Amino acid sequence: MYQPKVDPPLAVRILIMITLLLAIGALSLLMILHEFGHFLLAKLFNVKVEGFSIGLPPKILSFKRGEVTYSLNAIPFGAFVKINEEENDQNKRSFFNQKTSEKVAIFLGGVGMNFIIAFFVFTLLFTIGFPKSLLPSNYLISSSASSTLVKYPLNQSFLETGRFLSFVLVESLKGLKIAFGKIFTHFDVSDLLGPVGLVAITSRSFEYGWRYGIYILGLISYALAIFNLLPIPALDGGRLLFLFLGKIFKKPISQKTETLIDNITFALLMCLAVLVTIKDIRFFYLH
Asked: What is the pLDDT of residues 5-34, one digit of tens each?
């Protein structure tokens, strides 16, 4: 029997829109803070920073303060920091001329920021009450707290957060191995999530309450840190790989070569992102 489609009440539609905007804003903030981590470390080591952009082009407005051009772009998702990488021995403030330890620190600035956010989120949850329903079934809880919440004193929350992040790291690496295996053997992207999927999951989690929302944000922030450390060109881990290869062979890989490899890898990642986005739209919005 045909059932006519009934639109949700206006209040429900407004709530859905609010949670959707909140999710987009929260995810964008994670990316901005990631780039801000690179920005802070570059400034700390007196490396010249030429620009810091929020969002994706086209550009809406920009202003220059000191030597940095700050830009706000039209698409409110992501961010980008431009650091001077000129291969010129005379430019002492170029990234190219910094010590290896300082280069590593700058590369890890974004990952470090994402890790700090995740650590703060999970410490907060373990301190005020972590819903047991959010913990994986194979994660052993060292608490006899209430039937619904896991709660610790602050000092113990730090330790439990470290244990939880170690657990998530191991499970994430297992999941990445399976996901990449499916991609290379069957071109199957079902285990991957793109921006659309992340927004959908985050917005739906906030509908269940703020604890659920920040839990998902903590997981996403930690996942960004893990993913960015993978030795894939165009990611922070790829930049570290090129740096270490240059030290091993006692000759830095040229900026031209690295840029070419990064651009090719980035193009492949964008193609993969398109496929994942199509899959996410079908799964989350066309069911």
From this structure: 555 666 666 766 777 777 788 888 999 999
Helix (H) or strand (E) holding 150: strand 149-150
The residue count of the chain comes to: 287
* 194, amino acid identity: G
Between CA 62 and CA 51 the distance in angstroms is 10
How many Cβ atoms are within 10 Å of 196's Cβ, its own excluded? 19
Q: Is the pTM of this model over 0.85?
A: yes
pLDDT tens across 74-101, in order? 887 789 999 998 877 678 899 988 999 9
* DSSP H stretches of helix in the chain: 10-44, 100-128, 154-186, 195-207, 210-228, 236-248, 255-284
What are the C-alpha distances in Å from 193 to residues 82, 212, 224, 280?
27, 18, 12, 7
Give the residue from 261, 240, 257 showing the smallest Cα distance to 103: 240
Q: Please answer whether residues 81 and 52 qualify as being in contact, where contact means their C-beta atoms are separated by less than 8 angstroms.
A: yes
262's tokens:
């990064």
Residue listed under structure tokens 């995810």: 27
Dist. CA 209–CA 167, nearest whole Å = 24
Q: Using an 8 Å Cβ cutoff, are 281 and 196 in contact?
A: yes
Amino acid at 102: E
Q: Nearest 5°: CA angle at 139, between 138 and 143?
A: 130
The Cβ of residue 267 has, within 10 Å, a number of other Cβ atoms equal to 11
